[in-house]
Amino acid sequence: MTDLIRLNRRLLLGTALAAPFVARPALAAGEVIVRTPGGTYDDVMRKYVYEPFTRETGITVRPVAATSAKLLAMFRAGNVELDLIDTGAGQLLTLDRMGALAPIAYDKWRWTKPEDISPELKSANRVSNFVYCTVLGYSKEAFPNGAPDSWAQFWDAGKFPGPRMLGDMASGSAHLEFALLADGVPKDKLYPLDVERALRVMDRIRPQIRRFWDTGALSAQMLSDKEVVAGSIWNGRLQVLIDRGAPLAYTWNEHMIQVQAMGIFKDARNVAGAQLLADYMLQAEVQAKYARDLIYGPTNTKSFPLMTEEERARAPGGPRSTQTGFYQNNEWWEDNRDRVNRQWSRWVQK
Amino acid sequence: MPVRIPTAWLLLAPALLLLAGLFLFPIGWFLHASISELGTWSEILTEAEDVLLSGAISRSLVTTGWIGVVVTLLVLVIGYPMSYALSRARGWVFTAILLCIVLPYFTSTIVRTYAWMVLLGRNGLINQILLGLGLVGEPVNLLYNRTGVIIGMTYVLLPYMVLTLFAAMKAVDPRLMQAAEGMGASPAQVFRKVFMPLTLHGVVAGVLITFILAIGFFVTPALMGGPSDVMIAMLIEREVEITQNWPSAALMTIVLLVVTLALYAVYSRFAEPGEAVR
After folding, report:
1. Neighbours of B110 (CB within 10 A)
2. What is the pLDDT of residue B34?
3. Domain membership flag for residue A298
4. Confidence band, pLDDT 50/70/90 cuts, at residue A13
5. Residues A210 and A337 in one domain
6. Cβ of residue A24 closer than 8 Å to a chain B Cβ
7. How far is residue A126's CA from residue A263's CA, in Å, rounded to a whole number?
8. N or C, which end of chain A has less CB nearby within 10 Å?
9. Which segments constitute the ABC transmembrane type-1 domain (chain B) (predicted)?
10. Chain A residues in contact with B245 (beta carbon < 8 A)
11. How far is CA A142 from CA A35, A191, A234, in A?
């Protein structure tokens, strides 16, 4: 009796929490529901992944939006309303550690060879579908005689004057790595981050910071509206502005490579379909196409030879990128995000 | 015509069910599930102490309160004459003023906030005008700082004040002012001794509702504020989305909820229907 009540309560809770997803009709056998970042991303993926996948398998793909909190709520309430999660590697790691994810069926893959995916970009329950990076972007107009080419130069407000921006905790993680680089810490010695030292270095540039940005949209807007003359920004966001003719540029020096990854809810209704979609998406040819349009880096090592010289040059995670940049350490952030967030909230309100 | 009590409850039932199902129940679940995750009472208390005394939340509460007070005062100063004009206006003038106040609310807060960002930016319309007229030598920072937050929030909250005051002013019998004038009172005296006291409960209600809404603001300060303009709702969002520390978010939510409910208790005393028609 109590079990029945508990079950009902769980059902009710799940329904209440996942209200936007409840509209899902009685399960169409061949549908995979995938959480995506949304926007242009969906358009590109529909063209190169979802629609060809449907033609090949008969399984339809429905992209939906869901914040990390919503994913967590779904899992906790025991009512998982989507199958495949396509999100930042950090958030996916949270879900993985909570035991929400099913193993990726590498041994059953039919389109992609698991060994083609770089080893650091796959684990038992998670596999990366692209990498992106945070670069030092700047206005060419503000620095006609040479722009800052490193974070140490970014920190040099005397030589490179003007308002700046950096990423806030609310963007996923505060850009403490750049502060440590500016202070002379080598790229391969960044982690574990010395948070106190990074914040002391941040103190020095703070008067020049117009704003710590929280969303990619805001960072792009601030740079294109000339609210700031330089700052950290995601390469894709910046490249779109440059391609439209904005007088902006960036340096490939000391950029931070970040990872997007996929995982499958172990209680998902269509685990098998989600496995197939992940397998299909990660093929070298497919990745080369969407990576080109999204200006992201492919995770399949066989994709790079399929891209043009120019496309390769601007893809994060490529041979040049891995030499001049560094990978953000998700594990460290996952272990320390709580503590850093508190320190950051205190510091930022000083 | 007075409504009998059982009928009143019947009429209220749909609204109450909706509130219970979509607000009280989820928030109760969230608070309970999040906080019980911490374990025993002593562990909850330790975490509460840690969260509430960490410095971040106390600073944020000061920021939130300060912004709330400034915005509420500005809204009152701008809203009082507006409401007065509205309460005296007739015919198409009345309709025009009302439309100007209400119509922008058909667009979302985000869109309206972005509109302000276009106006207030370093290269925005206002700075271009100021520079063009030679009033300033270089662009004034009106955005991504406290000024920006206050301008944006004042704009968004103005109608709540205007409409609350309007209801109170409309209820003032104009013959009372005529009587005062007839007995030789100057216009200033009529306002100070008759009109203002009669609308005071509206002012209190308007101030409280504006302040309650202001301290829960998220979108406007998140978009228009500077590095240190962290309001409490922004801290809560960060705990929910970024660190996914729900117990900590729940504890902060309780702080905001307690403050809001306390103010609401005061508000409901001043917003009694019997008071408004006095």
Report:
1. 12
2. 87
3. yes
4. very low
5. yes
6. no
7. 5
8. N
9. 61-267
10. 338, 341
11. 40, 33, 20
**Closest Cβ–Cβ partner in A13, A210, A338 for B144:** A210
- Tell me which residue in B54, B121, B244 faces A68 most closely, judged by beta carbons: B244
pLDDT category, A170, cuts 50, 70, 90? very high
Q: Which residue of B has its CA nearest to A88?
A: B242
> Which residues of B fall below an 8 Å CB-CB distance to A?
21-22, 25-26, 29, 33, 54-56, 59-60, 63, 117, 121-123, 143-144, 222-223, 226-228, 230, 234-235, 237-246, 248
Q: Using the beta-carbon criterion (under 8 Å), do B238 and A68 form an inter-chain contact?
A: no
B63, A94: Cβ pair inside 8 Å?
Answer: no
CA distance B92 to chain A (A): 40
Checking if the pLDDT of A75 tops 50, the result is yes
Residue A320 falls inside a structural domain: no
Candidates B19, B25, B144: best to mutate against A (most CBs of A within 10 A) is B144
> Do A263 and A250 fall into the same domain?
no
This prediction has a pTM of 0.86
Note the pLDDT tens digit of each residue in B38-67: 888 898 888 888 888 878 888 999 999 999
The number of domains in chain A is 2
Burial label, A111 (beta-carbon count in 10 A; 0-12, 13-18, 19+): middle
Neighbours of B250 (CB within 10 A): 26
pLDDT at A29: 56
Question: Strand A248-265 vs strand A230-234: parallel, antiparallel, or unpaired?
Answer: unpaired
Query: Could you tell me if A24 and A53 lie in one domain?
Result: yes
Quick one: which of B158, B154, B150, B153 has its CA closest to B103? Answer: B158
- Is the pLDDT at B122 greater than 80, yes or no? yes
Mean pLDDT over each residue of chain A, to the nearest integer: 91
Query: What pLDDT score does B3 carry?
Result: 62
CB distance B172 to B198 below 8 Å:
yes
Length of chain A (residues): 350
Of A343 and B271, the structure prediction assigns the larger pLDDT to: A343
Q: Within this chain, do residues A91 and A177 fall inside the same structural domain, yes or no?
A: no
Quick count: other Cβ atoms within 10 Å of Cβ A207?
A: 9
Considering only CB atoms, which chain A residues are within 8 Å of B226?
A: 210-211
Judged by CB atoms closer than 8 Å, whether chains meet at B238 and A226 is answered as no
Same domain (yes/no): A141, A122: no
**What CATH number corresponds to the domain at position A106?**
3.40.190.10
Q: Which residues of B touch A170 (CB under 8 A)?
A: 222, 234, 237-238, 241-242
> What would the pLDDT profile of A204-258 be if each residue is shown by its tens digit?
999 999 999 999 989 999 999 999 999 999 999 999 999 999 999 999 999 999 9
Is A105 found in the same domain as A162? no
Does any domain span residue A54?
Answer: yes
- Report residue B232: phi and psi, to 5°: -60, -35
Q: How far is B35 from chain A (nearest CA, A)?
A: 14
Residue A321 lies in a domain: no
Does A94 lie at the interface with B, CB-CB under 8 angstroms? yes
Whether B73 shows a pLDDT value over 80: the answer reads: yes
Look up the ipTM and state it.
0.83
**Residue written as token pair 């040059």:** A313
Tell me which residue range forms the domain holding A242: 132-258+327-348
| Co-location of A191 and A334 in the same domain | yes
Residues B228, A214: C-beta atoms closer than 8 Å: no
For residue B144, the chain A residues in CB contact (below 8 A) are 210-211, 227
User: Which domains does chain B possess?
Assistant: 41-107+146-276 (1.10.3720.10)
* Predicted confidence (pLDDT) at residue A116 exceeds the cutoff of 80: yes
Calpha distance A201→B233 (Å, rounded):
28
C-alpha neighbours within 13 Å on the C-beta side of residue B172: 24
- Confidence check: pLDDT of A2 > 80: no
